[in-house]
Design brief:
The chain is built from seven helices and ten strands. It has 248 residues and is an alpha/beta fold. Strands 1-6-5-4-7-8-9-10 form an eight-stranded mixed beta sheet. A two-stranded antiparallel sheet has the order 2-3. The longest helix has 15 residues. The chain is globular.
Length: 248
């Protein structure tokens, strides 16, 4: 069993300026502002907190150096180990859909580059993020350590089982495709909480789906079609078992 690593990064500056972030510049901030205006606001994302977070977080620092010139383009980018950083619009859409308050505690399944966690941390009180791939975890940890974003805890492990010690959560975001909603995550969601995920066949297109918990019941709303990398670990093992078992 791999050891589990915990890191918590605290923000001591309430609103860091461009000058506070090494590797950022006024030119790149203008590129972010254009990204937000042309790719995100123009497609209907209107939540002021989400737009501000997308403008503030330097996406180019979360992608490989060889791809930094493409960081603000309208598409996902590879980050290594078969993983991607999502298209900016999808990051914004998923963030807005959670309808976060400033006191929210959010669980993210699939840290990836760390970009989505950074965006969430500009809005929520606390962000807990789990990454299953060791090399991806280490890169995200390094980037997040170097940047002044608030209240992010990152853990190496299988996100299918959530983060029981930190539960319950006001919101949960799954950033990898899965063909069902993991029961442990529903159990760790507060009453009235929201869970968003790409739900469907992990090897085809999925539906971005918003689940709202209401006591023992759940309401489900499909938002749009998406294409995410598959959720690995127990979720993938479970799918293979069901596929291989002719009785199912």
């Amino acid at each position: 069993m791999k050891s589990i690593c915990f890191l918590v990064f605290l923000l001591f500056l309430s609103d860091p300026s461009v000058a506070d972030i090494i590797g950022d510049s006024p030119r790149l901030r203008l590129a972010r502002e254009k990204m937000v205006a042309d790719q995100i606001r123009a497609r209907g994302v209107s939540d002021p907190q989400t737009l501000a977070a997308m403008t503030a977080v330097p996406r180019h620092l979360f992608v490989p150096k060889s791809l930094q010139s493409q960081a603000y383009t309208d598409r996902p980018l590879p980050i290594g180990d078969g993983q991607t950083i999502s298209q900016p619009y999808i990051v914004a859409l998923m963030t807005e859909s959670l309808n976060l308050s400033g006191n929210a505690r959010v669980l993210e399944i699939g840290t990836g580059s760390g970009y989505q966690a950074a965006v969430l941390s500009k809005i929520a009180k606390s962000v807990f993020s789990i990454e299953i791939k060791d090399a991806v975890f280490r890169r995200a940890r390094q980037v997040l350590q170097s940047l002044p974003f608030a209240n992010i805890a990152i853990r190496l492990g299988d996100g299918y089982f959530g983060w029981e010690d930190a539960a319950p959560f006001d919101a949960i975001m799954i950033t990898a495709a899965v063909d069902h909603i993991p029961p442990p995550l529903l159990q760790q969601l507060k009453d009235g909480g929201r869970l968003i995920l790409p739900l469907g066949n992990p090897f085809r297109y999925q539906n971005l789906t918003l689940v709202t918990k209401q006591a023992e019941n759940y309401t489900v709303r499909q938002i749009t079609g998406v294409l995410f990398v598959p959720m690995t670990g127990h979720a993938m093992d479970r799918m293979h078992l069901q596929t291989d078992d002719p009785a199912r």
